[in-house]
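Fill in residues.
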């Protein structure tokens, strides 16, 4: 199995979460929350690097295994949103892209995170963008990057 380094951004968030647990926001990274629950202190005090890496790899593997379902959800919410401007699918699409924007970089999927962040920015503007012509390119980019991440994961398992 290839060595997976714990991203520096996630490590800093985890350490910040330990110093101030109330400041942790859900979208920052699921790792931060799990780290605080599992370890309750400095990771260096409680775990060796090998154990920390093993737990991170397990979280990353779970996240990557969920990507196909997330990709299907983005596509189906986009299709549902196009049917009706007042559809609740718009809100669900925004929530999903917001979560992807925050969580994907924590698992080394920076390109997925960037694409989701661009879409999140459009969907959270005031008023929220509901123009299919403006949203189609960022949606396509997010779906393409999710496809690439899924393909890379399948290839790495082979």
């Amino acid at each position: 199995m290839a060595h997976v380094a714990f991203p520096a951004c996630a490590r800093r968030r985890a350490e910040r979460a330990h110093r101030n647990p109330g400041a942790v926001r859900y979208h920052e990274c699921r790792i931060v929350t799990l780290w605080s629950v599992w370890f309750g202190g400095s990771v260096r005090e409680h775990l060796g690097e090998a154990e920390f890496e093993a737990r991170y790899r397990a979280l990353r593997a779970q996240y990557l295994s969920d990507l196909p379902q997330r990709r299907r959800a983005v596509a189906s919410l986009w299709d549902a949103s196009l049917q009706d401007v007042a559809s609740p699918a718009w809100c669900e699409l925004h929530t999903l892209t917001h979560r992807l924007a925050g969580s994907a970089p924590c698992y080394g999927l920076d390109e997925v995170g960037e694409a989701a962040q661009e879409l999140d920015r459009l969907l959270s503007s005031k008023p929220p963008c509901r123009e299919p012509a403006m949203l189609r390119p960022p949606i396509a980019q997010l779906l393409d990057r999710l496809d690439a991440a899924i393909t890379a994961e399948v290839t790495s398992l082979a």
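Residues 1-5, 20-29 have pLDDT under 50 and may be disordered.
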